């Protein structure tokens, strides 16, 4: 079982603020100074004076998951007297994300925080930023090792894989039958790690009657995810459970299953506000996540600590962030990874306690 206690979520969720001022680049556009980076350019002049001025580059800016992280990052910026800017592509692809990284490198930001759409694909652009003296923090989805100073992981990867196997078992009648995965992009480091761990977990004898029949990719795009979910229902008439380790995919799958009146159950990782109606209808009896605002809050703090030189990203370094980790220090681990904390399971008993 994964831990059930996650007290700060409800408090954080009630104060969500959306900070996407610089995120309006049309699909496929590179982030030229004329569009998405209008705000960074203005911010750059402030940074020249030594101000803390951190840019977040999510996988894509039209994903509510990253809005929730932005809320936490903005709060950290306000508390630390720094600036927060979010820029990024409309589609979660490395090709679209790389120009934003390159552009951020020349705009005078004091640190770059990035959720990598492809660990290796974005690495050269991030290494160039590091070579230019800009600290790089990965959050949510890791860049390749060596292409960041610290990676802020939302939770231990293996806890998610095991939990997803357990949820699928709970939702398939008698823990028996066909299950399928609807993921984000095929290059996403985080989803791929969770899926690999889930596959390992499924080898356990207790899951012997579950058969993983397919893994498909919705690219964290609502339309593609919807089509992939429809495809699963058509291709596998005996399917029992769709597991979607992506907030975009789980929502699309739940909508498809509901619209088609299917008996298939859905689980995975979702935002409580998206999932509420499906928990009530029984399509998603249980699912998981972590405090996404806390993830943004911690990532901003880590960026600030790197900028000030209080940490360098070396394994073994410790630091404390007030309000997180029960006030206990975080320790930078192997591969310069810091783990926010344990994940949380939502179901009908607690879904109404959360608002994000
Ligand atoms: C989507 C993104 C993100 C992931 C969540 C669970 O919003 O793919 O990277 O962490 O789902």
Topology at a glance:
Elements: H1 9-13, H2 38-48, E1 53-57, H3 64-80, E2 83-86, H4 94-105, E3 111-114, H5 123-131, E4 136-139, E5 150-153, H6 157-171, E6 177-183, H7 189-202, E7 210-217, H8 222-235, E8 239-244, H9 247-260, E9 265-268, H10 272-281, E10 286-289, H11 292-308, E11 318-319, E12 330-331, E13 337-339, E14 344-347
Parallel strand pairs: 1-2, 1-3, 3-4, 4-5, 5-13, 6-7, 6-8, 8-9
Antiparallel strand pairs: 10-14, 11-12
Give structural notes:
The chain has 356 residues and is α/β, with parallel strands linked by helices. It folds into 2 domains: 24-155 and 291-340, Response regulator (Rossmann fold), CATH 3.40.50.2300; 157-288, 3-Layer(aba) Sandwich (Rossmann fold). The protein contains 11 helices and 14 strands. The strands form 4 sheets. Strands 2-1-3-4-5-13 form a 6-stranded parallel beta sheet, with helices on both faces. A 4-stranded parallel beta sheet has the order 7-6-8-9, with helices on both faces. A two-stranded antiparallel ribbon has the order 10-14. The longest helix has 17 residues, at 64-80. The chain is globular. It starts with 8 loop residues before the first helix and ends in a 9-residue tail after the last strand. The model is unreliable at 1-49 (pLDDT under 50). The protein binds alpha-L-rhamnopyranose.
**Terminus-to-terminus distance:** 24 Å
What share of the residues lie within helices? 25-40%
What Rg do the Cα atoms give?
A: 20 Å
Decide which structural class fits the backbone: alpha/beta
Question: What would you call the shape?
Answer: globular
The share of residues in extended strands comes to 15-25%
Name of the CATH first level of the largest domain: Alpha Beta
Query: How many strand units?
Result: 14
